[in-house]
Design a protein that fits this description.
- Strand 2 and strand 3 (314-321) form a beta hairpin.
- 72% of the residues lie in helices and 10% in strands.
- It has three domains: 2-157, no CATH class; 173-231; 235-370, Heat Shock Protein 90 (2-Layer Sandwich), CATH 3.30.565.
- The chain starts with a helix and ends in an 8-residue tail after the last strand.
- A five-stranded mixed beta sheet has the order 1-2-3-5-4, with helices on one face.
- It is elongated and about 130 Å long.
- Helix 2 packs parallel to helix 5 (96-116).
- The longest helix has 84 residues, at 122-205.
- The protein has helices at residues 2-31, 37-57, 60-66, 68-90, 96-116, 122-205, 209-233, 236-241, 243-258, 270-273, 278-299, 336-347, and strands at residues 261-266, 303-311, 314-321, 351-356, 363-370.
- Bound molecules: adenosine-5'-triphosphate (ATP) and magnesium ion.
- Magnesium ion is lined by residues 290, 293-294, 337.
């Protein structure tokens, strides 16, 4: 009866002490935001041993005489708990310190036993270890979750900023294109219209069939120019004949400007192309248009090939020239035309790659459009 009461008293003392330490630690962690959690975790775990020592000091003689075996088992369980906690905490990392503390706690208790004949209470000890480990694990998990949420938040902020910058860049490019359009209208169409008015005045003053012919020719020339400006804004061939025909047309126009030969191949069937909306097709067309403009401006190519093919559910548009290739010494990372291409591709979830052309000559531009999943474009 006496032994049972003593044991109960021991367990209650150890339990209460452990509970108080745990509660104080939880309160401290939550009420003191600047507190180093690591130190607290280590403290709680290390207290596993000390709690038992405090609670068992008053009954040292009793334990020395009767609990040798219990202590051996207790220490065994303590060691097992340490390994268990280490394995559990290893998932989160930096738990090596905790393992060291468990081991240190064990050695300290052994030394106390050897030096002062005070034997720790195994049950309180185990309880403290489990509670301490559990609390440490809980804190670690919480901290990990908090860090993950914070990382997600920052990632979202960065994405938002990128989106804003993309929008701004595209608005700027639209502004540039409007200016080019205004210049085209001014330089070609308006000048021809002025000539037309002048010729018309001449005709009114002295009508002749030759002047009428000239006026007719000039009028159809102006109509052609207006059609060209309209076509560069919104290619009618794209709307009427689809993306492959529009790309072929763009290639042909480039060849007329720069004098290279062309090869065109389309291996995409209509059903796959239909997965792209007209807006998406327009954006792909714009990418090809800039690629061909670049070839005309920089490549000095003799042959330019364009092909559309299916690669694992994606449409891949490749434009390959045999020209001088992109100058490796030139920094093109922030080059305007290529940057806008990337931004436009981003809008429809596509990718653009630049690499060397065939046999290490010229340039190959690859536009990869994923049609397997829904894109965020149009
Ligand atoms: N097919 C190509 N062959 C050789 N060089 C190329 C080719 N395409 C691009 N480049 C090089 O990459 C650079 C960047 O191209 P980008 O389209 O960004 O600029 P740009 O054509 O010079 O000017 P912008 O497009 O703004 O009018 C070019 O200046 C050129 O040196
Ligand atoms: Mg360019």
């Amino acid at each position: 009866m006496f032994m049972k009461d003593l044991m109960q008293q021991q367990i209650i003392q150890a339990g209460i002490a452990t509970l108080i330490i745990t509660i104080i630690s939880v309160l401290a962690v939550n009420l003191m935001p600047g507190l180093d959690r690591d130190i607290l975790i280590r403290f709680v775990v290390a207290m596993g041993g000390n709690t038992s020592q405090i609670s068992s000091q008053n009954n040292a003689i009793y334990w020395i005489s009767v609990s040798g075996l219990i202590n051996i088992i207790g220490f065994g369980v303590f060691a097992f708990a340490s390994i268990w906690a280490a394995l559990k905490l290893a998932v989160i990392g930096r738990s090596f310190v905790l393992v060291q503390l468990f081991v240190l706690s064990l050695i300290t208790q052994w030394l106390v036993w050897q030096s002062f004949n005070i034997i720790c209470h195994p049950i309180g000890c185990i309880a403290a270890v489990f509670l301490g480990s559990f609390f440490g694990y809980y804190l670690r998990s919480n901290e990990k979750l908090r860090l993950e949420r914070q990382a997600q938040y920052y990632e979202l902020m960065i994405r938002n900023k990128e989106l804003q910058e993309t929008r701004l860049s595209l608005v700027k490019q639209d502004e540039v294109e409007r200016r080019i359009l205004a210049a085209d209208l001014h330089d070609q169409v308006l000048n021809d219209m002025k000539q037309l008015v002048h010729r018309f005045d001449n005709y009114v003053n002295s009508p002749s069939s030759e002047e009428a012919d000239r006026i007719r020719k000039l009028t159809s020339q102006v109509m052609g120019e207006i059609r060209e400006v309209m076509d560069s804004l919104c290619p009618s061939v794209l709307e009427h004949l689809g993306l492959p025909a529009a790309i072929e047309d763009c290639l042909r126009k480039g060849s007329e400007r720069a004098g290279f030969k062309i090869r065109f191949k389309n291996n995409i069937d209509l059903s796959q192309l239909e997965k792209l909306s007209l807006v998406e097709q327009s954006l792909v067309y714009r990418l090809v248009q800039e690629t061909i403009t670049n070839i005309c401006k920089h490549a000095e190519a003799k042959i330019v090939k364009a092909q559309l093919q299916n690669q694992n559910g994606s449409i891949v548009v490749s434009v390959i020239d045999d020209g001088k290739g992109i100058d490796k010494g030139k920094d093109i990372s922030n080059s305007r035309g290529l940057r806008y291409m990337r931004l436009r591709a981003d809008l429809i979830g596509a990718r653009v790659n630049w690499r060397e052309g065939e046999n290490g000559k010229g340039t190959c531009v690859e536009i990869i459009i994923n049609t397997a999943s829904d894109n965020n474009g149009a």
